[in-house]
Design goal:
Elements (H helix, E strand, L loop, with lengths): L5 H4 L36 H7 L9 H10 L1 H7 L1 H8 L8 E4 L8 E5 L5 E5 L6 E4 H18 L6 H19 L4 H6 L2 E2 H8 L7 H11 L2 H8 E4 L2 E4 L6 E2 L6 H14 L2 H7 L2 E9 L10 E8 L5 E9 L16 H12 L8 E5 L9 E7 L9 H4 L3 H18 L3 H8 L4 H29 L11
Antiparallel strand pairs: 1-4, 2-3, 3-5, 6-7, 8-9, 9-10, 10-11, 11-13, 12-13
Length: about 450
């Protein structure tokens, strides 16, 4: 008698892993088919798809978003996840489902402190996370290597980087297919392993550089830089239009957000948070694809010692994949983001949570938000830094993506589908280069629309 009927107990729970025969799925989508890209089958206009995302954004920030996307083919790629989602959905998929990162481009991997205060290397952006076919993440990741290589003047290394990124993913999937589930769950890539992946002759003690940067990128490390004393009170320093106290229209929202956020975290974190006082808050501009979404930066101080903590409160909309896949099982998109993050990330910030607020106009939809620490040892890679070692960095990213898919999916099914022949790797590479070409064509169209005045834009970077 099976007293612990896990299959029954969790049948209706989000994130349940469905086991399928990966090799059989080749009959649904053959491995050679992974490499095909046919613009004639797109079924949407990329410019219209980008602009359609503006409906839930702060209209005053849209010219900044457009300016950033128009800057280069790489910044366009970062902001055009919705375009690629529609393009990926224009062809049949394998049906081998995982918890997608959803925006697994190469600069969405980075380092930060785990709750145990160890630096871990992992995925760092989950705005688009959703259950979806594993190959969509792989294609977005590998294509990003080609686009970044071209943007940073190392196009000759793109083939090597794509091969290395796929190899990192493929080799780890093969290992995870034989590992016990708990071993997969506890696996992680630390800063030392990242150094081992990326070390080359001119690293000059890369590990020491990482440690130094991580120490600076913390609430305590940026407290003096980001704040000043105004009329005897600590305030976040403005940097218009990227960081402003323009909260006249959002003050009531923010109070509601913070109150509901505290209800979303576990009791022990709520108890810890109750020892802090909210000191100041500003509206913030972040990223490329996120520009226009309402983002607040809050400063709180611990009541006894004044120790600071910055939280980022970020608006969450529907995943760009939801119109093509099953909708999220969560009724709050902030909850969708955080639950996806917890499922596929090796260790997650203890302060993450979510909330929502009702719209002032009943005809409008409520706005959802998620919350995380603003800086917690985060070391975010820069394209010009990793470009000289792109293949090595791509290998580490492939490892991490494989672990994420193995936590939120079935590595055995993926391993069986990919098989022992080079077909899948060659096909993924063919797609990456073909879609990179498409991305640059789409960027050119977007840039022309900006130049012609059809899309309002301003210089997008401080």
């Amino acid at each position: 008698m099976n007293l612990w009927q896990g299959e029954t107990a969790f049948a209706s729970r989000p994130g349940k892993i469905v086991t399928i025969d990966g090799a059989t799925q080749r009959k649904t989508v053959g491995r050679r088919a992974l490499g095909r890209w046919d613009p004639a089958q797109r079924g949407h206009a990329p410019l219209a798809t980008v602009l359609a995302q503006n409906t839930i954004r702060d209209a005053g920030l849209l010219p900044l978003r457009h300016g950033r996307m128009a800057a280069t083919g790489w910044t366009y790629y970062r902001g055009a996840a919705a375009v690629m989602a529609a393009d990926l959905a224009s062809a049949a998929h394998t049906g081998i489902m995982v918890q997608l990162c959803g925006d697994a481009h190469v600069l969405n991997f980075g380092l930060w402190n785990t709750p145990e205060r160890n630096l871990a290397f992992d995925l760092r952006d989950f705005d688009e996370t959703l259950q979806g076919p594993f190959e969509w993440d792989v294609k977005r990741f590998l294509t990003s290597l080609v686009v970044l290589a071209r943007a940073d003047g190392v196009a000759d290394s793109a083939h090597t980087a794509v091969a290395a990124g796929y190899s990192g993913y493929r080799e780890q999937i093969k290992k995870y297919a034989t590992w016990p589930e708990l071993d997969i769950w506890y696996d992680s890539v630390n800063a030392g392993q990242l150094v081992d992946y990326t070390a080359i002759d001119d690293d000059h003690r890369l590990d020491a550089i990482i440690e130094k940067r991580a120490a600076k990128r913390s609430s305590r490390g940026v407290y003096q830089k980001l704040t000043d004393v105004v009329d005897g009170e600590r305030r976040i320093v403005e940097d218009p239009p990227y960081r402003t106290h323009a909260l006249a229209n959002h003050h009531g929202e923010l109070e509601s957000i913070i109150r509901q956020y505290q209800e979303s975290v576990p009791d022990h974190i709520s108890s810890l948070w109750s020892r802090y006082d909210l000191v100041d808050a500003v509206q913030q501009v972040v990223g490329v694809g996120s520009v226009g979404m309402r983002v607040f930066l809050t400063l709180s101080e611990e009541r006894r010692t004044g120790d600071p903590i910055f939280l980022q409160v970020k608006q969450a909309g529907p995943s760009v994949y939801e119109q093509f896949l099953d909708p999220s099982p969560y009724d709050n998109h902030g909850s969708r983001v955080i639950h996806g993050q917890r499922l596929i990330q090796s260790a997650t910030d203890v302060f993450v949570g979510w909330t929502s607020i009702s719209a002032h106009d009943q005809a409008e939809q409520p706005m959802d938000f998620y919350v995380r620490q603003f800086r917690d040892g985060k070391v975010i890679p820069k394209g010009e830094i990793i470009a000289p070692r792109l293949a090595q960095f791509a290998t580490a990213c492939g490892h991490v993506l494989a672990r994420a898919h193995s936590r939120g999916g079935d590595p055995k099914a993926i391993d069986d589908y990919l098989g022992s022949s080079p077909k899948a790797g060659e096909s993924f590479a063919a797609f990456a280069f073909a879609y990179a070409d498409q991305n640059y064509a789409d960027h050119a169209q977007f840039a022309r629309a900006v130049d012609d005045g059809d899309v309002p834009a301003v210089e997008g970077w401080p």
